[in-house]
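Input sequence (217 aa), recorded before submission:
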Amino acid sequence: MRIAVIDYGMGNLRSVQKALEQVAPQAEVALVATPEAVEASNAVVFPGQGSFADCMRALHERGLTEAVRWAASHRPFLGICVGLQLLFDHSEEGDVAGLGILPGQVVRFPHTAAFAPGGRHLKVPHMGWNEITVIRPHPVLPAELTGTRFYFVHSYYVVTERETEIVAVCDYGFPFCCAVAHGSLVATQFHPEKSGAAGLALLSRFVAWADAFPNHP
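Predicted structure, token format:
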């Protein structure tokens, strides 16, 4: 099995690669930077780190925009952090169009810090460990993950137009979408590669799900 980690210069690439190698020692985990290498893979992981606009620019400059769109519908696909956000139509961060793979917007947490119930102050970015609630179980994110803590670093979150694609939510003053799934695609706002044993277990489930996916190449 060959797992492609898309290298467009904007992700926590080495950490993601090492985490996947740890949970799937039988697989070839490669950083790939060409459409041909993406298409030659059995599964694709799409990390992202930094600003939405910079990530989109890097994808365009490296000629990977269409390769990501293709992989999201033709291969088992895992988006991570900004790699989740880029899948949507548009982001407030830089007022930039996304890949348009999923319908919805990426919006900022409120500018005022007093947006929690009772006026409690919360910092933006949302950074650190937080619990998730699974609302639509998925092979990669089963129901028993409710209450599990994962590691987040972000100031923006996705508002999807299709609520049926929301797999899990997290509460930070209000519930927001932290994981989605559609067809062969699953994506998380949190960082599995930074989330200790729970994150490694999630990556292991993704590899197993990808390996058994219908019409696996």
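Checked by second reader. The chain is about 25% helix and 30% strand.
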